[in-house]
Amino acid sequence: MKQGDVDEALAVLYLRLNGYFTSGLIIHSPQHGQATTEVDCVAIRMPNHKQTDRVVGDAPFLAIEPGLIDLIICEVKSDASNVAFNSPLKTNRQAIEALLEWCGVHSDDGIENVAERVQPLFADDAKIEQVISGIVDDGVRVRGLLCCPTSATGNCTRWLLDGVEILRYAEECFNPAEPRETCSVRYNFQQWSYPLSRIVTWLKDKKRQTPATVDELYKHLEVVRQV
After folding, report:
1. What number of helices (H) and strands (E) belong to the chain?
2. Which domain of life is it from (predicted)?
């Protein structure tokens, strides 16, 4: 498996476990043979989401606000030295408008204004507090999330999802210390579908002797690292 595919799958797994519907998206271009940009993961969580039988709360990292539709535009990077949003999201307002039109959570007459307010969140120097808070309009919050599973966030000044947080939360969901009366964690793991099924199976493997780290996951999946 390629590293980029695994890294995107990890981001999708984390967001899915936190109640988000996820999809990739290609923003089309009028120029033949080209696309304006690609969004690795568009994630939407509805305001009444619950999964009480799992007995696991939302990840604090996501700072979820009750009562809002939460729209996250997630850029996944495999190179920890180059973690930033793609240039079109930072420079092309029409690309953002096309993305918002596709998501369909804003009225047509509000999209232009929302896109204008959202675009600064993709800037390299955007303040982390502003990015986490996002832009709220008519009950919808829009945010831009960077993800790099191989990053060590430390004192990172960006809102950055790393592999430690992804696997920490996945372990909390998948491997409870005691059996849950309302939620079995043992079932046919192939129901997750490829490639998530391979990641979930590894995480849930009771015979696994190695810690749940991104490096160990790459080793298990025989990932071809990007250079």
Report:
1. 8, 6
2. Bacteria
